[in-house]
Amino acid sequence: MDDVTATRRDLSAQGWTEAYERSVMDTFGPPQRILVRGDGAYVWDAEGNRYLDLLAGIAVNALGHAHPTLTAAVSAQLGTLGHVSNFFGTPAQITLAERLLRLAQAPEGSRVFFTNSGTEANEAAFKMTRRTGRTRVLALEGGFHGRTVGALALTHKPAYREPFEPLPGGVEHLPFGDSAALEEAFSPASVAARGEVAAFVVEPIQGEAGVRELPAGYLALARRLTADAGALLVLDEVQTGVGRTGSWFAYQQPEVGGGIVPDAVTLAKGLGGGFPVGAVIAYGERAATLLGRGQHGTTFGGNPVAAAAALATLGVIERDGLLAHVRDVGETLRRAIEVAGNPLVADVRGRGLLLAVRLTRPVAAQVATEALAQGFIVNPVAPDAVRLAPPLVLTTDQALDAARFFAGVSVPGSTASSKEG
Ligand SMILES: *Cc1c(COP(=O)(O)O)cnc(C)c1O
After folding, report:
1. What phi and psi values does residue 242 have, to the nearest 5 degrees?
2. Structural domain includes residue 98
3. pTM for the full model?
4. Pocket test for ligand 1, best of 119, 149, 152 (most atoms within 8 A of CB)
5. How many domains does the chain have?
């Protein structure tokens, strides 16, 4: 059969990289490798080198690469009915909505809106906040919520925001994890000066900021303050959701959420196991009806292939007991890295399989480069932190392999010298 997709050109890695640089917009910088194939927790590059993928496409490939159940579900749906628009419903879309509501233990009247990405899920949530009749939205310093302009208004990082101002107004960024600052934002003086709060949008664990956990009790306080003020509590679980931290959603862990029920949860990354799909879960009648008929829309959102991918992903997580596995293997990985005692490693923070190896010096980029050279994909999420967000199917042996890398890694100027001399 002719290769009508024409992707099988036999270029060298160098040839592909040059073709990339001539054809793909330079928003990401040059690709670190050209990857051609994956299987489970491994990927292979164009030169045949194998890597243990400890990033999983940035916390996306929950089932690893080329999972047979996901492949079969996507293929079967595409071969049956691939797209219909939201003028129509499909069994896959409806079943996924029901399933998400069940996993969220969402009360009567709750509803789901489907998107294609995390930023779109947050965009929809942002539009929900405007429908409260208030425009003052709180978010946190260090928070990351996406790159479309609404989500970007919620995102804190000045380098991402400033080139695109003016952004939608009304968003205030509070100091991370500061309970007093949060209480102050809801105080009569603050409300008199800046208006009633429409919503607080927050990640249960900040991912892009370096896997930062909120202090115990913070989300419970946020729930109390928002509820008392008639404001929405929106949890951005785009990165932490779908089993990543060892529960369906991070806030469901008592130590994280303290038993709260949010008004909305946004999801994407892991939801489709690598297929682009996002969702907003709106809890209860009030949140679920903020966006009325015609007030929001999407051509692709809820697409049956994406829904089938999500159903397969959720189904395998459930069938294979991956939530418990994530807690176990995550703990194994964390402890194995910590006990190795590499002086370059301060500690490991995070939950489940969303971890950051904190370094004693700001050399995360060099560590990531060395990791790649040794066959491990990791992410220098901060100057002194290396993020690990491997597939949820990571095995204990693979976790120990990763730990061995961190036990031995040294970079120039490092005192960790197990490989030197
Ligand atoms: C990745 C991420 C987003 C943005 O998702 P995209 O699919 O890249 O648009 C939003 N919020 C959080 C917490 C994320 O980690």
Report:
1. 60, 50
2. yes
3. 0.96
4. 119
5. 2
